[in-house]
Amino acid sequence: MHTTDGGAGTAPLEGRRLLVTGGTGSLGQVLVRRLLSGEMGMPSKVIVFSRDEAKQHYMRVEYANRIAATDEIIFDNFRRLLEFRIGDVRDFHSVSSVLQDCDTVFNAAALKQVPTCEYFPFEAVLTNIAGPENIVRSIQEHRLPIETVVGISTDKACKPVNVMGMTKAIQERVLLQGNMRCRETRFIAVRYGNVLASRGSVIPLFLEQIRAGGPVTITTPEMTRFLLSLDDAVDTIFAAVRGASPGDTYIPRVPSARMTDLAGVLIGDRPIETVITGIRPGEKVHEILISEEEAFRTVERSERFYAIRSILPEVASGEQPPAAIPEYSSARSLIGEDELKRLLSKHGLLPDQAAATRGELLR
Description:
The chain is of the alpha/beta class. It contains 13 helices and 16 strands. The chain has a domain at about 15-190 and about 230-255 and about 290-330: Rossmann fold. About 40% of the residues lie in helices and about 20% in strands. A 9-stranded mixed beta sheet has the order 3-2-1-4-5-6-10-15-14, with helices on both faces. It has a 3-stranded mixed beta sheet with strand order 7-9-11. Strands 8-12 form a two-stranded parallel sheet. The longest helix has 22 residues, at about 120-140.
């Protein structure tokens, strides 16, 4: 198996050919931008693999038209570095073809909307489980010299109660068991919570409701969620690439907040009411990043990250956790409204900031 840094020192991706499945999604686009910046070493190629030709077109045009001085690295290398391929992780032959040209894989392709997965559960199975299996099977059957595969998971995979979380939990197990099927490839995972302002998440919904004059809808007053930015999510991915042993799942140490507090901070002094609508199909009141059972095989990696060792003794390294940590729940790391306001302001997500970005005025 490969070493725990995935390829050496501070530039583990130097000269590597990288594949980002689901590369046109919210996370995928930020991940691609960060990969092209060279902070993990300058890759020789970054392949964006997805089934949405329209999103690929707009992403291609966006990169082709970058002209600001701060974009020089990306712009100068765009034609040589960035490649777009239409395909679907559900299709074994499509996956096998694109993997022929890669050293490192970031599997960000997913069906991630909780209600959608509840109403179309087998569609979630095909993307979130069969997709990762196609990656492992392709590497195994074609004996591909892939160095590292990173599975992108979610807090909903921990003690799952919805189809999205259930399928993501199995994705973790499929990929991490891949270490036994493909001994020359390091399979690792990252798991994190609600990403601030990603497509379909709660903050864009609240901002749109505020812009329209309300009401702001909250499913239940008790609901809490972890909060991190897209760049925090990519930081977790990069930390895993640098430091994860085969079978590890990296977890960021991030704050959480009550959704009522989040709505209150975003509304501010505007005369907008909030309405309690009831929990949607498949929703949890509180999210969990590390369960009580996983706590016994979890180690601290730094002030920012935990690593959960594989449940399979054949895969897990010999390092033993010094002591079990508490269950890591969004109900236990809550921040108040002042700190929440600072966090949102830092990322330009307060309503007036968001309006300025769009060139609009909120009511």
